[in-house]
Every structure is written in structure tokens, then in C-alpha cells.
Amino acid sequence: MVADPVLLQAVADFFPNGISRYAVGGLLVGLGTVLIYAGTGIPAGASTFLESTLSYVSDQPRFRRYVASRDWRVVFTVGIILGGLAFAATFQSGLVTSSLYEPGTTGQLYEVAGVTLWMTDVQPWRLFFGGILVGIGTRVGKGCTSGHGVCGVGSASKTSLVGVVTFLAVAIGTAQVVAALGVSP
Amino acid sequence: MTDRHPLFKPLVFVGGLVFGFGLGFSHMARPEVVLNFLTFEDLGLPFVMFGAAIVSGIAFTLLPRIRDAAPLTGDRYERRLKPFDRNVLIGGAVFGVGWGLSGICPGAAYASLGVGNVTILWALAGMFLGAYAQGYWRSRSQVRNSSATGAD
């Protein structure tokens, strides 16, 4: 076996954590989407939950359209949260290890009842103000990374491809500017 | 929609579990890792999004040929196709600024809470606030428009 050292160096530079945790994680995200689609015919996205859940507490006409789906969307989101916790209790806690999983060094680890949990170092104001724009943009733009990025691209939807290119390009520009301004983390 | 199959919600729950586990495993539940992609320090993210899109794309293509309707709802298998208008560009750009600033998107934020990231509640609070603001504004313009032209 001959490995090209230039190629290996490029891989090491651009993929400091390898690619397997990303590829395996992506397959699982796709599998979760497919399970729901196979049983129900619904290509589920994550951001509709924001509006459908608001319909419990708001009479705004805009949110009324999600009344029929709001219950199962809560179930979907609780599943996602507990799926994250299941990951924390296994791989993140080191209870299960695999050569396909690269732990990484971001953020802070802390322990509760034997489970290793993780906390971000990214500043709350970035999360809060970024979150507001994510809440507006995903709902006005008809989808987020899962609705457009996974279900829409998986459907070869031109609308979703345009949506993904738009938010990816703008997000890259924004993150570069924020980093250049010296905001870290 | 009222009398759904008893397995409808359990299946949605299991699908969510696998989905959330994948977001944890891929580190998309960590804003730092998303920001590292956006600043070209770790190019792993497309393997998550497009890996998931390929898996769902296979199912979206094959299932309609195997069965006529989904077993738990009786709904026909259809692709996720939404009409294009300028909202896709405007919303996508606003989402892009928010994603680039925070490093978090809705599904990853839910999973982030699960991996222990209590700080992500700031992002979730922001997302609900943003979703409410656009819903409030669009509800208003919807009422205005429908009284004038009858269109959305």
C-alpha cells in the first residue's frame, strides 16, 4: 500500500478529527429521518417544532396551521433530546468506544451521576442573537438544515438546493467576519 | 389526523432518538465544531448533511416504488418539494447570519441540550423568540392582504 504523503497531509489539515464520526453521524441522522418517513410518509424537519409549539400558547393565525402536527413534533423533539443524552451516556462518557468515533477537544466536559456531559464555550450572546435570526430565517425560508438540507436535498428539490447554498454561503461569510473581528469563542 | 395508528408517536420517538444520537455522534450538537467548519478549520460537516441527504434520498426514491402508502398514516409517499419564491432567499440569508454567528441550528440545538449543553437554552430561547416575531408579523400582513386581495 502506497500512501501519498501530500494527500495525507491535506487530509490531516482539513480533517483534524477525521471523517468517520461525521459520516457515521450523518448516516444515523438520515436513518432517523427514513424511519419516520417509511412509517408515516412525513419528511420531518426540525424547525417547524418552533412554530407548532408556539400554537399551544399563541392564537396568532400563522401558528394555527401547525395545530394538527404539534403533538407529534413535540414527541420528535423529545426523541432528539434523549438521543443526544443516549450519545452522552455511551460514547461521550467513554462507556462505548469505537475507532469510528473521534472525541475531540471543544468545550467543557462535566459529570453528573456517572454520565459525562458537555458544555459549550461559545458566548451566550452569540447563541441568543444567532438563535433569534435562526428562528426568523428558518421559518421565513421554509426550512433549516434538516428540512432543506436533509429532506429537501434528498428529494432533489431545487428550492431546497437554492436554500442550502444560500444559508451555507451566508453562514460561512458571517463566521469568517465574526472570527476576523476577534470574537472567540 | 385525530385517530392515528397507535404506533405513530412511538415510531416518531424512535426516529427522533436515532436522529439525535447521530447529531451527538457527529458533534453537530457542538457549536464550536460547526463554527470550525464555517471558518474552514475542519471540513467534516458536509459529510453529515449530505450523508444524511443521500440516505433519505434513497428512501424517498425507493419507497414510493415499493408501496403506495405509508402503513401508519395511509398517506402517499411524496418527496419534500416546496414552491420557490424570494422568501427562500431572504429566510435562507437570515438563517445563514444566525447560523454563522451562533454555530447552531434547530435540530442540533435540541440534541445539544441532550448532551448536557445547558447554555444552549440561550439559543433555544432566541429561536422561539425569532419564530414568534416572524409569525406575529406574517399573521398581521396575512390579515391585511386577505382583506385587500384575498391572497397570502
* Distance from first to last alpha carbon of chain A: 41 Å
Tally of domains of chain A: 2
Helix and strand run of chain B: HHHHHH
- DSSP strand tally of chain B: 0
Rg from alpha-carbon coordinates of chain A? 19 Å
How many strand units of chain A?
2
Gyration radius over CA of chain B? 19 Å
Report on the architecture of this protein.
The complex is a heterodimer of chains A (185) and B (152). Chain A is built from 8 helices and 2 strands, in the order αααααββααα. Chain A has 185 residues and is mainly alpha-helical. Chain A has a two-stranded antiparallel ribbon. In chain A, helix 3 (48-54) crosses helix 5 and helix 7 (147-154) runs antiparallel to helix 8 (158-180). Chain A is globular. The model of chain A has no long low-confidence stretch (mean pLDDT 96). In chain B, helix 1 (8-25) crosses helix 5 (106-114) and helix 5 (106-114) packs antiparallel against helix 6. With 152 residues, chain B is mainly α. Chain B has helices at residues 8-25, 31-38, 45-66, 86-102, 106-114, 121-148. Chain B has one domain (8-148). Chain B is globular, with a radius of gyration of 19 Å. Chain B is 67% helix and 0% strand. Chain B has 6 helices and no strands. Classes of the chains: A mainly alpha (185), B mainly alpha (152).
What would you say about this model in short?
Chain A has 185 residues and is mainly alpha-helical.
Secondary structure blueprint with pairings:
The complex is a heterodimer of chains A (185) and B (152).
Chain A lengths: L4 H10 L5 H21 L7 H7 L6 H4 L5 H23 L15 E5 L2 E5 L4 H17 L6 H8 L3 H23 L5
Antiparallel strand pairs in A: 1-2
Helix pairs in contact in A: 3-5, 7-8
Chain B lengths: L7 H18 L5 H8 L6 H22 L19 H17 L3 H9 L6 H28 L4
Helix pairs in contact in B: 1-5, 5-6
